[in-house]
Amino acid sequence: MYITANTDTYCIFGNPVKHSLSPILHNFMFEYYGIDAVYVAFEVEDIKKALESVKALSIKGCNITLPFKEDAFRYVDEVGDNDTAFLESVNTVKNENGKLIGYNTDYLGFIDLFDEYAKFCSDNDTVVVLGAGGTAVSVLYGLYKLGIENIFLLNRTPHKAEKLKDKFAGKLNIKVGLLDDAIIKEADVLINTTSVGIDKESLPIKPAILKKDAIVVDVIYFDTPLVKEASKLVLAAINGMGMFVSQAFYAFKIWHGIEFDKPTAENLLKDLDL
Ligand code: ATR
Predict the structure, then answer these.
(1) Is 6:254 a contact under the CB 8 Å cutoff?
(2) Mean pLDDT (the chain, rounded)
(3) Ligand 1 pocket check: which of 104, 157, 195 to mutate, most ligand atoms within 8 Å of Cβ?
């Protein structure tokens, strides 16, 4: 398909953003579904100005990634649903005739990733979440939506975990600790939301201490050292590719009203050298 004067523009704003898989996935799906649009990445310094440019240039929609999701929540004109209002974090924006509507599809991505494992979780299971940043908020909200209430939230900086405990008061029963908390040995489910492992070298915890029947989830979209080591030791260790594909699936649905074929997306991305 040729890019013409009628081609619609979509984009992602982040910093850094050069590693993003979103352009590959969305452009592939435009071709696949015959949508006359193009999706590009912009590394920006100022998300307020970037969102103003969405209006000025009639960009139809954008994704927001690190470190701008919380700021984007403040600068959109409206939020699309109550979930986004609670999360106070926006990763998807739709430009509806000059009005920017913000959505969070990250937590939906986590639900899709974890759903098949959640079925096997009981109230007595020990669920440990590592990290208390923006990704942790989406993961905690996903766990809440899946009916998993009792959570140990471990973070390098304790006050950030305490803040999330307060945010989720009435929704989740959160106990807070540090990343070396002894509870890790008891974890039936361990979910890493820290950025430790993005460098392909570091580990947030020592996998050797995990129980043999534990399930390990790392929301980073490739096999981190945690996933690689844990997969030799525990029942299941999965990376965050499914979460990435699902958040894009819901963004695509918001923008185009189309539910793209997830296996096709996963096949496309699995052949890339991530
Ligand atoms: P994101 O939106 O991806 O969650 P973030 O909000 O910057 O990004 O949060 C990153 C998370 O990774 C935080 O929990 C952070 O811990 P702190 O709250 O102590 O900063 C965690 N993190 C990042 N680098 C880390 C490291 N080297 N060791 C331990 N935790 C780390």
Answers:
(1) no
(2) 96
(3) 195
Find out whether the beta carbon of 131 lies less than 6 Å from any atom of ligand 1: yes
Whether residue 156 is found in the same domain as residue 191: yes
Q: Give me the number of domains the chain comprises.
A: 2
Q: Which atom of ligand 1 is nearest to the CA of 134?
A: 2
Q: 22 lies in a domain?
A: yes
The answer to whether residue 2 is domain-embedded is no
Indicate whether 15 and 36 sit together in one domain: yes
Domain at 160, CATH number? 3.40.50.720
* 182: its two tokens: 């002894």
Same-domain check for residues 156 and 213 = yes
Ligand 1 centroid to Cα of residue 17, in Å, is 18
**For 113-125, how does the pLDDT look when each residue is reduced to its tens digit (9 = 90+)?**
999 888 888 888 9
Q: Is the CB of 91 under 6 A from ligand 1?
A: no
Q: How far apart are CA 231 and CA 216, in angstroms?
A: 8
Run of H or E residues at 167: helix 158-167
Q: Could you tell me if 61 and 92 lie in one domain?
A: yes
Asked if residue 231 and residue 112 are part of one domain, the reply reads yes
Q: What is the DSSP letter of 184?
A: G
Distance, CA of 9 to CA of 246 (rounded, Å): 21
Q: Which has the higher per-residue pLDDT, 274 or 18?
A: 18
193 pocket-lining for ligand 1 (C-beta < 6 Å): yes
What is the extent of the structural domain holding 146?
107-239
Query: Residue 273: pLDDT above 80?
Result: no
Quick check: is 175 catalytic?
Answer: no
Residue nearest to atom 29 of ligand 1 (CA): 156
Q: For residue 12, is it within any domain? A: yes
Q: Give the per-residue pLDDT at 271.
A: 80
Tell me the whole-structure pTM to 2 decimals.
Answer: 0.95
Give the number of other CB atoms < 10 A from CB of residue 139: 29
